C-alpha cells in the first residue's frame, strides 16, 4: 500500500488483486437510490418500457379497421405491434397501411419478399398500392392470429415517408406465411400524424399497440 497521510474524505484504491480499501473516516459514502418510476407518454394510457413509450392500444374496433390519430411528434420512430385476423372466409388477406388519411393506392410504392410453404416470392408494385402486411383469414387454423410489426423511421423529418413491416402466421395446418414489405409514399414529406390499417372489406379483428421509440 502507498504511504501518505490520508484526510477525512480520502479514499484509497489499491492493494493486491481485487482488494478495495475505503478509508473515509468521518464521512461514510453516501447511498445512491435509482428511480424505478415509469415515464408516461402522450396519451392517458401511455407507459414506458426501455426506449419505447406506449402511445395507444386498439382492440377489436367496431369499424373492423385500425386507425391511430393525433400521433405525437416527440419520438425518433413509430412502431406498431400486435395480432390480427381477418373475419373474411379466406386463408390469407391483404391489409393496407395508409398515412395521413391518404387512401389513394397509386400514391404508394410497395416492394415485398414473402415465403409461403418454402416458396420465395419477390414483388415490386411500382404501379401503386399500400399493402403492408398479410394476415390469417377465417378459414386458417384456430388461434392463428400471428405476429405483426410495422416501423416508421424518421416520421417527423422532411424526407419522403414510408414504413417497413414484418409478419408471420399459419395459413393452414401445414403452411406458414411470413414476409416483410417496404412501402413509401411517392410524394409526401409531411410528418406522420395519422395511420390507418385497413382490409379491403374492413373486416379485421385483433389488437394493435402504437409505440413512440427514442434512440
Order of helices and strands: EEEEEEEEEEEEE
Assembly form of the protein: single chain
What's the CATH topology label? Jelly Rolls
Q: Return Rg in Å.
A: 26 Å
Order the strands across the largest sheet as they lie in space: 1-2-13-4-9-10-11-6-7
Cα shape: globular
Number of domains: 1
> What kind of sheet is the major sheet?
9 strands, antiparallel
**Number of H/I helices:** 0
End-to-end separation in angstroms reads 45 Å
CATH architecture: Sandwich
How would you characterize the overall build of this protein?
By secondary structure, the chain is mostly beta strands. The chain has one domain (47-213): Jelly Rolls (Sandwich), CATH 2.60.120. The protein has strands at 47-49, 52-59, 66-68, 77-86, 92-99, 108-116, 119-125, 131-136, 147-153, 162-172, 175-185, 195-199, 204-213. A hairpin with a 2-residue loop joins strand 1 (47-49) and strand 2.
Brief description of this entry?
0% of the residues lie in helices and 46% in strands. The chain has 215 residues and is an all-beta fold.
Compile the SSE list and pairings.
Layout: E1 47-49, E2 52-59, E3 66-68, E4 77-86, E5 92-99, E6 108-116, E7 119-125, E8 131-136, E9 147-153, E10 162-172, E11 175-185, E12 195-199, E13 204-213
Antiparallel strand pairs: 1-2, 2-13, 3-12, 4-9, 4-13, 5-8, 5-12, 6-7, 6-11, 9-10, 10-11
